[in-house]
Amino acid sequence: NNENFGDAVADVGDANGDSYHDLAVGVPDADGMGRVLLLFVDGQTGAVLNAAAPRELAAPMRAVSGDRFGSSLATLSPANASGPHLLVGAEDTDGSRGAAYLVYLGSTSSEDTYEVVDVGAVSGTAVMPSWQLGASAAVAASELAVDGVLVVAVGASGGISDDRMLDDGMLAADLGLVYRVGLARPTASPTATPT
């Protein structure tokens, strides 16, 4: 179906309480907007227990067709811990400016909440059209506990278009950027309505 199932994959820890690690799988072209599926894995056999009806993280309410929610994934904390659980990229949001979301997993899909990572506000640099923020995502794991700051890296594969000619005569374009963003690490799901 050209949904690009598996474009991104992340270990989310034990999401269903059976003591075995489970997976988040990005499907960025599903339903036009993208989604993330939680797959519960049998620790003994490796089989996916909920393959017929996986737990779904639907695109945020603000999403529109073509956003590619789920184009990148990074685990922030195990699914059975407090705080945000996943960093999810949506590289084509808002005219391909892109977006990244902190996702807090609830007991059910209807209880999941989303918080936008406002890279522009944190970095002081405006994210321009076609930069594709969220094309990649990672967590600087060694810095998770530093002064309560969560450090994430969010890639913008189309960042900084440059029309200079390189030494080999090729035109330099879409050089790309990686934003290193320090966020105050929340200890619980936000109370505000998800965006």
Content-based structural category: mainly beta
Biggest β-sheet strands, sense, barrel: 4 strands, antiparallel
How much is the average pLDDT? 75
Supply Rg. 17 Å
As laid out across the biggest beta sheet, the strand order is 1-2-3-4
Percent of residues in helices comes to under 10%
Number of strands: 11
Spatial separation of the terminal alpha carbons: 28 Å
**Outline, from the CA principal axes?**
globular
**Which regions have little confidence, pLDDT < 50, spanning 5+ residues?**
141-145, 188-195
Order of helices and strands: EEEEEEHEEHEEE
- What is the beta-strand fraction? 25-35%
**How many separate helices?**
2
Which oligomerization state do the chains in this entry correspond to?
A: single chain
Structure, explained:
By secondary structure, the protein is mainly beta. Helices cover about 5% and strands about 35% of the residues. The protein contains 2 helices and 11 strands. The strands form 3 sheets. Strands 1-2-3-4 form a 4-stranded antiparallel beta sheet, with no helix packed on it. Strands 5-6-7-8 form a 4-stranded antiparallel beta sheet, with no helix packed on it. A 3-stranded antiparallel beta sheet has the order 9-10-11. A hairpin with an 8-residue loop joins strand 7 and strand 8. The longest helix is centred in the middle third of the chain and has 5 residues. It is globular. The C terminus is likely disordered.
Provide a compact summary of the structure:
By secondary structure, the protein is mainly beta. 5% of the residues lie in helices and 34% in strands. It has 2 helices and 11 strands; from the N terminus they run ββββββαββαβββ.
